[in-house]
Amino acid sequence: MAGAEVFVPDSRDLEVLTTAARGCRGCDLYRDASQTVFGAGARDARMMLIGEQPGDREDRAGAPFVGPAGRVLDDALHAAGIERDSVYLTNAVKHFKFTQAERGKRRIHKTPSRTEVVACRPWLVAELDAVEPEVVVLLGATAAKSVLGNDFRVTQHRGEVLHLPSGVTTGEPELVATVHPSSLLRGPKEDRDIAFDGLVDDLRLAASLCHTPA
After folding, report:
1. Angle at 47 between CA 46 and CA 52, to 5 degrees
2. Rounded CA separation 132/63 (Å)
3. Carries keyword Ion transport (predicted)?
4. Residue 187: CA atoms inside 13 Å, Cβ hemisphere, count?
5. Cα–Cα distance between 209 and 136 in angstroms, integer?
6. Structure confidence by residue, pLDDT tens digits, 127-173
7. How many CB atoms are located within 10 Å of the residue 140 CB?
8. How far apart are CA 160 and CA 28, in angstroms?
9. Quick check: helix, strand or coil at residue 91?
């Protein structure tokens, strides 16, 4: 697996990066996905949110966080006093990885491998360099491990203010690690309110780290 390096242009222009990402063949996920789902949002966003990968809805629409998990995230952002239009949303992996249901046409989410996450990482670094956010919210384990290493555990560092390893990007954003919104949908219904409140608290912490309003 060659990785995305050879497909990433030397540019900080998000339009240039988005166009180039459509032709990425850095891993095999492009073969089955409908399209590349690059990041979207405010070019001058002070806050960047990174998820795992696009889901079925995102793969069809070509935009991040437009499915059920996106609706949960929208509600959490609203509760935290953060405007979605003011942030930049992306994923660690830009193509939808899935397995086909034995019956019917339903496509079932499959977690990207470490190799696939590493292969796609140059795109994420390019987005960080282009947007230069003050704070980055890592939504879930895959996103956190994509920038902090495979040994990182969200449960051990939730609620902490973290930092990128040196040399990853030109900026020095502060990091907040939290759960992925989809985990609220998968968890027991009786626990969802508590889990939602925890996500909102983490987003509020991230917003408090911005020198200018998120």
Report:
1. 150
2. 21
3. no
4. 14
5. 10
6. 999 999 999 999 999 999 999 999 999 999 999 999 998 878 888 99
7. 24
8. 35
9. strand
CA-wise closest residue to 86 among 119, 41, 129: 41
* Residue 7: count of CB within 10 angstroms of its CB: 16
Residue 33's nearest CA partner among 7, 59, 55 is 59
| Report field, pTM of the whole predicted structure over 0.90 | yes
* Domains of the chain in sequence order: 5-209 (3.40.470.10)
Residue of 37, 39, 35, 33 whose CA lies nearest to 14? 39
- The neighbour count for residue 111, using CB atoms within 10 Å, is 14
* Residues in the chain, pLDDT under 50: none
Neighbour-count burial of 59, counting CB atoms closer than 10 A to its CB (0-12 exposed, 13-18 middle, 19+ buried): buried
Q: Are 207 and 45 in contact (CB under 8 A)?
A: no
Residue 14's pLDDT is 97
Residue 36 CB: number of other CB atoms within 10 A? 21
- State both tokens at 159: 């609620």
